[in-house]
Amino acid sequence: MTTIDPTADLAAPAPLISRKQIIILGRLGLALLLLWGWQEGAETFGSVFFAYPMDVVRRLIEIAGNGQLVTDLLATLRVSGIGFVLGCVGGVLLPFLLRRSKRWTDAIEPYVLMSQGIPKYALAPWLILWFGIGDLPKLVIVTTVVFYIPFFNVFAGIRGVDQRLVRMARIIGASETKISREVIWNSLLPFFFTSLKVALPRAVGACIVGEFLVSTEGVGHYIEHARELSDTVGVFAGIVVATALVLLVNALVEYLERRALAWRPVDRDMAL
Amino acid sequence: MINGAPLLEVRNLCKRFPTRQGRAPSPWIIRDLTFSVADREFLTIVGPSGAGKSTLLNMIAQVDVASAGEILFQGDKIGTADPKAMRPGLDRRVGYVTQDDNLLPWRTAIDNVLFPLEVQGRLDDKARAHAQVLIDAVGLTGFERYYPHELSGGMRKRAALIRTLVYDPPVILMDEPFGAVDAQTRAQLQEDLLRLWNLGRKTIIFVTHDIAEAILLGDRALVLTRQPARIAAEHMIPIPRPRSVKSFLTLPGFAELYERIRAEVQ
Amino acid sequence: MNDSDAASPTVDEAPAPAPGIRWRTHIDRAIVLVLLVALWQVGSMVLGVYWLSTPWATLSRFVTTLFDGELIRQSAYTVEESVLGAVIGGVPAVILPFLLRRSPILVAILDPFMVGGYGAPKLALAPLFILWFGIGLESKVALVASVLFFIVYFSTLTGVRALDAKLVQMAQLVGANERQVARHIVFPAAVPNIFAGFRIGLPYAIGAAVITELISSNRGLGYLVQVGAMNFDTTQCFVAIIAATIIVLGAGYLVDATERLLLRWRPAGDMLTDAGGN
Question: Nearest by CB to A156, which of C124, C221, C275?
Fold first, then answer.
């Protein structure tokens, strides 16, 4: 029997730079590379097409200082928020209402699917015709964009509810409302929160885009207005604000979700 | 035996998963395992369910590294401690029928069977004819164009089996291939395997936790201990071939052998 | 030879759906359609044609512009922009995960940038692209490409990552080299996810083309809507919107049909039953 070296095949000693550090370094490197690329782009293509990073920073400070940034952000958030709430309320209520009647559900199902194919932004000019330039056209667009997200999630969630639980509840004598509230709602909660999580950033994004077409205020308006004036720095600055806004909203809902569902394993793959 | 030397030799094989820095050494899964396999021998390895048996096969097939010890194939040392130097399947000399059939879901049955030949660039008419012979031999005739999800569990096992046979590796490892099917299907699969093996005797190392299966199929049976696994006993199986799967209980010597091995496996 | 296990569905899926849709549902749907059209007609009569065109006017204008080629021509612009953008954005998005497959470190390095790109509102870039490329084809293609890229990247990445390592091992055991593994194992395994990515991304892609046309264009369906609104010609608006909807739905159907054709090997329960695809 050979003597076995107890140190044989121990894991190799820790390398100088850990994997984690390599990744962080790599990310920093890539970020710097992109910034450098931006600077180079500005120099190569000229200030008509590209704004220098420093100019963009200066502009951001400027609009933060003179209140423009705050005004536009509030305008966008206001409309996004209301549209988000309306869209979610509709998107959540409708499946529950439809649950009561399979006949109605089958009847309108194809139309709901078809309506989802309508490019919502294409409605904007027509909505402007109706409501003029104000909050309402944007609101309608945001609401319709948001609506489908919880609608399909909740709808699928209701369908996916364990029918045995529902049957059991019926046998016990629970009313349909009680069943909706107790069995279905609780089974649905994860789907519901996921769809909210996805919908809010989309709402903000949709509002910004809506503002391109119809607005006198808001982050999207700022971008489009700048473009019309060939104010390249403004366009870049506006896009930075828009991107930051949506990413922040995204991060916020993720944070809230983690806090609220800390006891539950979060399914990361449901992002799409 | 060819030239008196065994085809495959395992000497003092040891295996444990790498110990992380600063932790206590991880336990040995296999320790000081030594045995050999002769050319054209059907060797069965019995042992309690646990990681050891599959790990052993993985090392022979070169999809896992040994911690210590040697593996020799036709006299050449093949075991290596360097994961990057592994040669899975040892250049197609070692076939491996795993527990899961691992059929490619997007290929039909016949395309799955032909897959190794396609990869090896040996796909010609002769090869196709050979594949068809194997398909007929296991009763999959008519199901060639079916997708795996359309086949029953037993049929998928058969397809996986002939997929390994089709490119004729001299050594075939089998890791509890019939474990996950019902008793009747299993008996049928065992019959098919024995018949195929009779047609062209290869070297087979067959791992199972089912003692009856080990006796029924093998020329020789090795009994493995629990972790750290080593050889507890070795039994020649003198039951003459061809063996009847259906009436295995009445095979001469079966009962005594079964009792003896059962006691050892405890 | 006695084959005790004839081919049968291996897993007991949910009970088979009722054969076809009942005729009553068809009638229900027809009734709903009639109701919707009636509502439309009433609305148009109450509010006035300038605000809401009538169903009949919309239909006849649709047919007219369809047959005189105008609608087809404008639709073709929008479709062209979408297809070009889908290819330019989609192809690199599919290839990248395969290239990165062997290097999880690179994937990890890229991850925050990709996630950021996915989360950021690409449509907000529309004015920028118009600034850069003008009101022609390129600005629309650029936007469609950026929208689709991230969606398809993540779908494909999921597919490549979810790959069953045992299948790769099996291929290696029978002698496959890296290229063969990528071609025979990784790629087929990821195809369903690639399709899912395009399926989900298509409505956004076409929407992106339309939206850019709305902001600034001289052709395309978005342009038609915009001009219609400016001329108080709501009929034109509706015709263009309906055409765009048909394109979105048609493209979705095409992707689904192609997927069904190519993915016949999938067990029935695997098909994404997601009705809308968000």
Answer: C275
Give the model's pLDDT for residue A265: 54
Read off φ and ψ for residue A212, nearest 5 degrees: -60, -40
CB–CB contacts below 8 A, B to C: 93
Considering CB atoms only, which of A27, A110, A243 is closest to C121? A243
| Nearest by Cα to C119 from B176, A31, A252 | A252
Is B120's CB within 8 Å of C174's CB? yes
Residues of A in Cβ contact (< 8 Å) with C37: none
Chains that touch B (3 or more CB pairs under 8 A): A, C
Four-way CATH pick for A52-271: 1.10.3720.10, 2.40.30.170, 1.20.1250.20, 1.10.150.750: 1.10.3720.10
Kindly provide the ipTM of the predicted complex, given to two decimals.
0.84
Distance CA(A165)–CA(A183), nearest Å, equals 7
Q: Is residue B67 less than 8 Å (CB to CB) from chain A?
A: yes
**Is A130 in contact with C33 (Cβ distance < 8 A)?**
no
Residues of A with CB under 8 A from a CB of B: 1-2, 4-6, 8-11, 13-14
What would the pLDDT profile of B154-181 be if each residue is shown by its tens digit?
A: 899 999 999 999 998 989 999 998 888 8
Residues of B in contact with A11 (CB under 8 A): 18-21
pTM: 0.82
B105-154 residue pLDDT tens:
999 999 999 999 999 998 899 999 999 999 998 889 999 999 999 999 88
Would you tell me the crossing angle of helices C126-133 and C187-215 to the nearest 10 degrees?
80
DSSP 8-state class, residue B206 = E
CB-based contact B116:C174 (threshold 8 Å): yes
Beta-carbon neighbour count of residue B56 at 10 Å?
A: 28
**Are B105 and C266 an interchain contact pair (Cβ–Cβ within 8 Å)?**
yes
- Boundaries of every domain in chain A: 52-271
C-beta atoms of C266 and B149 within 8 A: yes
Which domains occur in chain C, in start order?
58-267 (1.10.3720.10)
> Smallest Cβ distance to C175: which of B89, B108, B149?
B89
B23-72 pLDDT tens trace: 788 888 888 889 999 988 999 999 887 758 888 999 999 888 888 888 88
Q: Give the DSSP letter string of A77-101.
A: HHHHHHHHHHHHHHHHHHHHHHHT-
Look at residue A96 in the predicted model and tell me its pLDDT.
84
B233 touches chain A (CB under 8 A): no
Taking each helix axis from N to C end, the angle separating B125-137 and B183-199, rounded to the nearest 10 degrees, works out to 140
At B259 the pLDDT is 87
pLDDT of C58-101, one tens digit each? Answer: 999 999 999 998 899 999 999 999 999 999 999 999 999 999 98
